[in-house]
Amino acid sequence: GNSVTQMEGPVTLSEEAFLTINCTYTATGYPSLFWYVQYPGEGLQLLLKATKADDKGSNKGFEATYRKETTSFHLEKGSVQVSDSAVYFCALSDPYGGTSYGKLTFGQGTILTVHP
Amino acid sequence: DAGVIQSPRHEVTEMGQEVTLRCKPISGHNSLFWYRQTMMRGLELLIYFNNNVPIDDSGMPEDRFSAKMPNASFSTLKIQPSEPRDSAVYFCATGMRGAGQPQHFGDGTRLSIL
Q1: CB A65 within 8 A of CB A73
Q2: List of chain A residues whose C-beta atoms are within 8 Å of the C-beta of residue B104
Q3: pLDDT at A29
Q4: Which of A38, A109, B13, B42 has an alpha carbon 20 to 30 Å from A86's alpha carbon atom?
Q5: Which residues does A86 contact at the CB level (< 8 Å), separation at least 6?
Q6: CB–CB of A103 and B96 under 8 A?
Q7: Average pLDDT of chain A to the nearest whole number
């Protein structure tokens, strides 16, 4: 079955530091890949996505590249801010035509805390 | 555009009471997912629907939990009778079936069973 593994947290950084949160996956075929962010007291929000190999998703200064050869989708940001403090989830969905009806498989989440 | 709307946002009730959580999906979305989130177990998928039909309820923890989707614009998750270990944040998410389609989450219902 499908699975997603994220680097263990929590991750604590100073403002303006470089961020990497590792994500690797196991899936058949070519899944779509997502990063979601959850701020305190809120639901998960889509941060970025990539639907095929070598695609780069980007949003709000965050980037992730779909690497089929290493089955990875690592999240990066060049300079984090205090407002980036949140929980980050990596997820995948089955390729189109599968029977999962848009079901997502999530990683366990990584807590990020950014200090001033 | 209105997102996924969940109600109530907070619910506090006593053990043994019936609890009903509600979800209004984004108009046009044909898949709906119910999740539970706790510190201990993380994010768990309970059940999901496509075109109002339940597809997989293998994540529903016990027979005390039930979910319905009577039409395309409304779904409920019911717990009867409730127990303290059901305390969690329950999320509803909706989306479209298709390659690369994300799910859109509501803000959740924070449930506390005393």
Answers
A1: yes
A2: 46
A3: 79
A4: B13
A5: A37, A38, A39, A40, A112
A6: no
A7: 92
Q: How far is B45 from chain A (nearest CA, A)?
A: 9
Please judge whether B99 and A89 are an interchain contact, meaning their C-beta atoms are less than 8 angstroms apart: no
- Testing the interface with B: which of A44, A51, A89 to mutate, by most B Cβ within 10 A? A44
Give the span between the Cα atoms of B4 and B89, in whole angstroms. Answer: 15
Range of weakest confidence among A13-22, A47-56, A90-99: A90-99
CA distance B81 to B65: 9
Q: Can you spell out the DSSP letters for chain B? A: ----EEE-SEEEE-TT--EEEEEEPPTT--EEEEEEEETTTEEEEEEEEETTEEEE-TT--STTEEEEEEETTEEEEEESS--GGG-EEEEEEEE-SSTTPPEEE---EEEEE-
The residue written with tokens 């999740």 in the block is: B35
Kindly state the percentage of chain A with pLDDT values over 90: 78
Residue of A nearest to B92 (CA): A43
Q: Which residues of B63-73 are buried (b: 16+ CB within 10 A; e: fewer)?
A: eebebebeebe
